[in-house]
Design goal:
225 residues; mainly alpha; 9 helices
């Protein structure tokens, strides 16, 4: 399927977005580091804070990036925006109201894979983009869908409880849709999005429905792949 916009139009959206919200990109990094810190050094309100921040990111991507900016070149962004807003609501419902989402970093294979995805989203992703010629402000920054979805999967892998399957559907959906569009446009840093979606969703669902220990779930996933 042919995309309804060109690579130049796509990068122009990032430029308009980044210039309009600057310096909020720095604030978004601070929020991400807050999530990481609280996952390592837990406090009483750790889970409420983390889920509130994750919900904010998804609501922001739905309303601001998709609906206010991305719709200028793609009308489907209204649909994407609604889906992202729904994910933000689900995070608030399951994580803040029902308190079914809890996070704590552990130095096992779950923790390692989650850490790799987080580092990729915050550091490697923008570096790959820079070397591919996608320099700021005409580049996807943390706080837009692809790197933020990778980061979300990384935090999900730090979950200390079995995650409700509903919370995984939209991030997995975007890992396919976002990667497909980015692949056609040559945004190669988004290659990590597809891997993050398939690997993380598979691991978390295996853990939920097989009752396997954390390490065993990963072994089963690699066998399945």
């Amino acid at each position: 399927m042919k995309l309804p916009f060109t690579i130049d139009q796509f990068l122009q959206v990032f430029k308009n977005y980044n210039q309009s919200i600057f310096p909020l990109q720095i604030f978004f990094y601070l929020l991400a580091f807050t999530i990481v810190f609280l996952s390592v050094k837990r406090i009483i309100a750790t889970d409420v804070i983390i889920n509130s921040i994750l919900a904010f990111f998804w609501l922001w991507m739905g309303l601001v990036y998709n609906i206010l900016f991305f719709t200028t070149i793609n009308q489907a962004a209204y649909l994407f925006g609604g889906i992202f807003i729904l994910q933000g609501i689900l995070l608030l419902y399951y994580g803040v109201i029902k308190k079914k989402l809890s996070y704590q970093f552990q130095s096992d294979r779950f923790g390692l894979i989650g850490s790799l995805l987080i580092v990729y989203a915050l550091i490697i992703y923008p570096l790959l983009g820079y070397f591919a010629g996608h320099s700021f402000p005409s580049s996807p920054t943390f706080g837009v869908p692809c790197p933020t979805t990778i980061f979300t999967f990384g935090i999900f892998l730090w979950s200390s409880k079995k995650m409700p399957w509903m919370i995984l559907i939209i991030p997995f959906f975007w890992s396919i849709v976002g990667f497909t569009a980015a692949f056609k446009l040559g945004i190669w840093e988004d290659s990590g999005l597809f891997l993050a979606g398939v690997l993380s969703t598979g691991i978390l669902l295996l853990r939920k429905y097989t009752g396997s220990p954390r390490g065993t779930s990963i072994k089963l996933l690699f066998i399945g792949l």
